[in-house]
Amino acid sequence: MQTVYDLGKGLRLVDLSKLVDPASESRRCRLDRFNTGGPIPDFHTNLDIMSHLGTHAECPYHHDESWPDVTEVPLDRFMGRGVYVDFGESIAPNGHIGAADLDRFGAKLREGDIAIIDSSYKLNPFTKDSNTELDKRLFVNAETAEWFRERKVKAVGFGDGVSIENCNEDVKPFHDILLAENIIFIEVLKNLEELKRDVFFLSFTALPIKGLDSSPVHAYAIEGLAEFS
Fold first, then answer.
1. Closest listed residue to residue 12, CA positions, set 157, 172, 224, 199
2. What is the pLDDT of residue 229?
3. Helix 142-151 vs helix 168-179: angle between axes, to the nearest 10 degrees?
4. CB-neighbour burial class of residue 168 (10 A; exposed 0-12, middle 13-18, buried 19+)
5. Residues 183-213 pLDDT 10s
6. pLDDT, position 197
7. Residue 6: strand, helix, or coil
8. Cα(12)–Cα(223) distance, rounded to whole angstroms?
9. Helix, strand or coil, per DSSP, at residue 150
């Protein structure tokens, strides 16, 4: 699948989504394709998938029955000025991303931005290697969440260099603090190494299905738009 497109006039389109293959996907993903047209082909497909499949947006309903589902989150929260914050190896493996780290690397973030955090310690999330000796990814916790809440970002995304499944003591407060403020998450972002800029337009719109706590999304960045530079 092509991941980078030259749109001309200095614009680049970068696909930031995981390619989901039902044959190898570890999460629920089944397709039932059938022909409703008989001799005149008219194919349809029944999808049997989970809401946290592939690259997906997590909304407040994910952590509280009274918080907004994907249809109650304003549409403009699923797009905007994206800022890629790559900590590289500035934090020790399996270290927590603290306020001081974000002060140093997140200086470009403004109120209403979408932050994408990453590091050099890459590992595919939600696999058998998660939380093993092979997993050196950075961690988030309550301190990380409070920093983003204070900056009033609209969403936080995660590259393969940041873990959000290490332990309940870190993951639960991180989710609860931000989701309570309708700050949504974009998980399992891919192809971030293809970005040439750290500020860009980002879109990751969820499916408008009432009652969904989260939704698979097709996330992409457009580099070179003056309004999002």
1. 224
2. 86
3. 20
4. exposed
5. 999 999 999 999 999 999 999 999 999 999 9
6. 98
7. strand
8. 5
9. helix
- Whether residue 105 contacts residue 58, with contact meaning beta carbons closer than 8 Å, is answered with no
Residue ranges per structural domain of the chain: 4-24+51-228
Residue 169, token pair as written in the block:
């003591």
Q: Are 42 and 35 in contact (CB under 8 A)?
A: yes
Identify which of 90, 76, 75, 86 has the alpha carbon closest to the alpha carbon of residue 116. Answer: 86
Three-class DSSP category at 179: helix
How long a stretch of residues is the chain?
Answer: 229
**C-alpha neighbours within 13 Å on the C-beta side of residue 117:** 28
| Encoded tokens for 3 | 């991941």
The angle at the Cα of 82, spanning 210 to 160, to the nearest 5 degrees, equals 85
Q: Residue 178 is inside which H or E element, if any? A: helix 168-179
How many Cβ atoms from other residues are within 10 Å of residue 11's Cβ?
Answer: 13
CATH superfamily of 4-24+51-228: Putative cyclase (3.50.30.50)
Q: Give the separation between CA 80 and CA 78, rounded to whole angstroms.
A: 7
Question: What tokens appear for 121 in the block?
Answer: 């310690």
Per-residue pLDDT tens for 50-76?
999 999 999 999 999 999 999 999 999
